[in-house]
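Margin note: ligand = adenosine-5'-diphosphate.
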Amino acid sequence: MTEEKRTEIAAIGEFGLIDRLQQQITLQQESTVYGIGDDAAVIQTGELCTVVTTDLLTEGVHFDLRYVPLRHLGYKAVAVNVSDVAAMNAIPRQITVSMALSNRFSVEAVEELYAGIRLACEQYKVDLVGGDTTASGAGLTLSVTALGTAAPHELVYRNGARVGDVICVSGDLGAAYMGLQVLEREKEVFIANPNMQPQLESYEYIVGRQLKPEARMDLIHELRELGIRPTAMIDISDGLASELFHISHRSGVGIAINEDKIPVAEETGRAADEFRIDATTCALNGGEDYELLFTLDPADYERISKETDITAIGLVRKAEEGLYLITRGSNRRPLQAQGWQHFKKK
Ligand code: ADP
Ligand code: MG
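Resulting structure:
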């Protein structure tokens, strides 16, 4: 056997791998407006553009069916794809659902999964139009693809942030991560003593954020009604820091974030204290919040009502300044993005 070069994926990370594969791909179709590198690809065949995005969830890596009800899993699988459509400032229209099932799953179990999928279809007004079903050697793998539409001038990419823009996030951050910590802790207790009932009452908000995230289509509609188009946008799936790196990388800009402006819910803060985790670290690196991170022209930011569920957390800077956090003590701390080393995490 000849000695072939072997590079561990961990050596370049998930994003490094995608970048490397992207470099080897040449686009041939005029209708392909945007390929790899954003929350969704963009295709134009008529006046409107179609956006396409897909996500793959694997049992044991992305979810644990010991505490994730199948109905919730179905809902979440749709919501996370709708969230990527939202991040393009597009409107979701259709989804397809593909699954690989081991013989551990009954017809009733699959129907439970689909009850959640149907609920999400109602919530986001999308049609389930197809998919694929196959056997799996072990566990469940679920993949959803979502299609959406927008006029070309409505689309928002990761690459449009300009120096001086206001950096905003919707909702609050870090809750889904803390919810996961609580669920994992209760699972350990349950494994040790199956008669113990999970203690989740005082963690309803954060557990809900982990199990049943919502795509922020409400905000997309609100901004459209105001006639405001963000200059850049991405949804927060891997954590705020990682998404800020994407915006910085694609837009060629620097980023300054004020630690004291990062929105963290009271319950998240309390749980973080209890687990002795820094709440800012949760918000920066936790992930799975599925909120929107976007940049706005300052004049547009002024036009948004202070009642709206968004927070200005910082400013777009020149690329030379890099990415940094202005801490509560007014120090500059360079941002680190764990999401850029996905395969290194564990
Ligand atoms: P998101 O977190 O928004 O779902 P990802 O980080 O998963 O985005 O993907 C970033 C970009 O890389 C997207 O454009 C996605 O379509 C593309 N991508 C991810 N995996 C692959 C792959 N195996 N082959 C081709 N493109 C991929
Ligand atoms: Mg995304």
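The first helix runs from residue 9 to 23.
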